[in-house]
Amino acid sequence: MKKLSIIALLMTVIGMLLWQPQLASADELTGHSHEKGLRYLISKNALVKDAKGSYRPDANVTRGEFASYLTKAMNLEATSDIVFKDVPDTYVHAKDIKLAASAGIITGYGDGSFKPNAAISRQHMAVMIERAINYLNIPKGTSSITFKDNAAILKDYRQAVAIGAQLEIIKGANGYFMPEKNATIGQASSFIVRLMQLAGDPDAAEPNGGNSNGGNSNGGDTNGGNTNGGNTNGGNTNGGDTNTGSSKYAVKEISNGTLVGNQGFSTFEAAEKAVTKNTQVIVQSDKIVKMSSGYVVTNNYVALKSETINDSLGVAANTEMEYLSSDATQVKVRLAGQVGYLKHADVTLIPFSMSKGRSYYENVNGEIKHTLYDYNTNKYSSSYVFGKAPSFMKQGEKYYSWDGIYFTNGNGSSKGEAYNYYQFLPARAQTQYTAQELDAYIMNKLAEVESTGVSSYKDATKKSKLIGLGKTLKDVEEKSQINAMLVLALAQHESAYGMSNQAQDLNNLFGLYVTDTNPKNKKFDSVVDNINELVEKFLQPNYITPGGSTGKNFANGAVVGSKALGFNVKYASDPYWGAKIAGHYYRAEKALGFKDAKNPYTIGITTTTGLNVRTGAATSFSPLFTYARSGMPVIITSSATNGWYEVLSDKLYTGKAFVSKDYVQVINTVK
């Protein structure tokens, strides 16, 4: 019996040993270098098996998949009406892509697409991760971390890569980041799990319960502490207030350009009630989150959802905008009349009395000069001239404007309204310069930039992609009814006079398919093909034709304009892009004798929404098209007849077009 008992015991032990591996059987992720991240995504229902039963950890991750991973990991819920033309509702990740876009974490291409099935590069992931960092309010600093291949990282993306590396979310190999290399699903999962560890997601925590850096990822009590880091260094992030304990907000007063005092409060609402003077501000972690007056500067590229035109606008870092109000989570701003909301992590609030410098306009020898301020270095960084100065601008006085149209002086008093002729000249205008004159100007300009000695302009008179484009530009003007000088000005600006790498290597003069988040190195067979693509796929169907013939409405006025109206609303994130293009046109005019300015077009601005442009001067004629929004510039070609103006059609059309005089205001342009 004893032997039988021993044998039975041995058989039981052997059975257990044989059974145990089956309970914890290895799968394709066991021992994988990115196993932790992969299993984290699985736990969030972000990563599922394909039809063959595989998680595909070593396959390239697509843009759609990565957007979906972020959405599910961050538990995004708020949505808006942002849509991409190549992401139908039936697409597997459609909902997650929309949520990520609504949160400002992803943006699309200039043609309204997102390209969800395209493989995503490591540097593109870094940009999305930086936006996620901002969305999650994860503390970050300005990092100087670089990789051996830093020069290969697109300039606008280096900050995102550096911040991700500093926070140890992003890691390279042997000192290299490999920005253009496509990321795998496994790599993407590791990036995301590290991100969510910093955000305090318990599902992302290390097995020992600690942060990957050895500390508590929440910085304190998860039931009552600050989930954004709380006391990150063992001290109070409100500036050392020893009387308020765990206070999250402080009320401080502006005194001689600095903040003094430190009255602590546990909630934003309590701090708000304690503010009794215009000189007081509310501070969180040494960052102003509410003030009585001042302005707002973007810390990085942001997507501003404009409530004014119900559209999302790309806005570059270092952009100044009007401060309207703020609460604990967001800031209400106005950019060139476009009202929207941004997260505190995306912006810096600057009371007027604490401003160390601000971009301004001035009259210099009769020309309007715009000087820009760099908030990263706290220095004036650059300036440009873009036309004649309006008559109300006095030399030696600084002027300020949110939109380049309405100007105030240093006291905030209104000083005048000015529409720069070249900035608000509709694209259907024709320049009076011939192809030969354009070619002569191009060569003179190239000789000028070449003589500066700047290395990027070396041999410009021999190598520039602008050489000999006069006839092509005039052919475009005749066939497509788009101003040849305007197209040249755009090419000069976007291609550094035809000497940029994209121009030289890809025949891309206009930055086509290159956005702040998704550059695409598309090579054109020739600059002529590139110009035709600009006209046929961008300007004509989307930016000039009202309503957009492709179903994506980028038509906010057929002028280069500003963030208030024109191409600049959607074409470029730089709020002064339109003024800079106008500057190129103006300087060409100055060199060639001001032929266009001496025989100018009459320009009007529409004053109502839903305005029909008709084929005849009466409501009985069919509408040619409709302006959805007000404030659209039009070229008036004849004086009013029976209450109607004859105008140039923004839609490609050879016949006459008419609009009711009652809804158009003629403007005085500065030229």
Note down, in words, how this protein is organized.
By secondary structure, the protein is of the alpha+beta class. The chain has five domains: 35-204, no CATH class; 249-284 and 286-354, Roll (SH3 type barrels), CATH 2.30.30; 360-417, no CATH class; 435-597, Lysozyme; 602-670, SH3 type barrels. It is built from 16 helices and 25 strands. The strands form eight sheets. The chain has a five-stranded antiparallel beta sheet with strand order 10-9-8-5-11, with no helix packed on it. A hairpin with a 3-residue loop joins strand 8 (320-326) and strand 9. Helix 2 (35-43) crosses helix 7, helix 5 (122-135) packs across helix 6 (158-166) and helix 9 (435-450) packs across helix 11 (470-480). The radius of gyration is 29 Å and the shape is globular. The model is unreliable at 1-25 and 207-245 (pLDDT under 50).
Rounded radius of gyration (Å): 29 Å
Number of helices: 16
First-residue to last-residue Cα separation: 113 Å
pLDDT averaged over residues = 86
What overall geometry do the principal axes of the alpha carbons give? Answer: globular
Number of spatially distinct domains: 5
